[in-house]
Design a protein that fits this description.
about 25% strand, about 120 residues, 4 helices, alpha+beta, two-stranded antiparallel sheet
């Protein structure tokens, strides 16, 4: 560790199988994937809604080329417990605050592309 190889710093660690890595992520994640919200919602409104579960590092609502929200967002919490609480609470009860026109939020753990395949 901290060794240079061809001018690049390298890290050497124990091999861990992909399925075990993915299993560990479900116990430590801090990023959530949110969809099915009103496209008029702003990053700040989304952040205020999710701060009830814990400290929010950042919120990113995806915007299309024409400037409209795509209805998909990512919320990054500082701690895993806050992210887990957000996922649990939005699936157990009707969320309030930023739900408009009868739309219920879908919140889940953010998964990397390799995990979804």
């Amino acid at each position: 560790n901290q060794m240079l190889l061809n001018g690049h710093q390298v890290y050497v660690g124990k091999f861990e199988r992909k399925d075990r890595k993915i299993g560990n992520l479900s116990k430590t994640y801090t990023n959530c994937y949110v969809k099915h919200f009103d496209p008029k919602i702003t990053d700040e409104e989304m952040k205020k809604f999710f701060e009830r579960f814990g400290n929010v590092n950042s919120v990113k609502i995806l915007i299309s080329d024409d400037g409209e929200a795509k209805g998909v967002a990512f919320v990054a919490f500082t701690e895993h417990t806050a992210a887990q609480d957000a996922v649990d609470a939005t699936h157990e009860s009707e969320p309030e605050g930023i739900v408009m026109a009868g739309k219920k939020l879908h919140v889940s753990r953010h998964q990397k592309k390799a995990e979804r395949e």
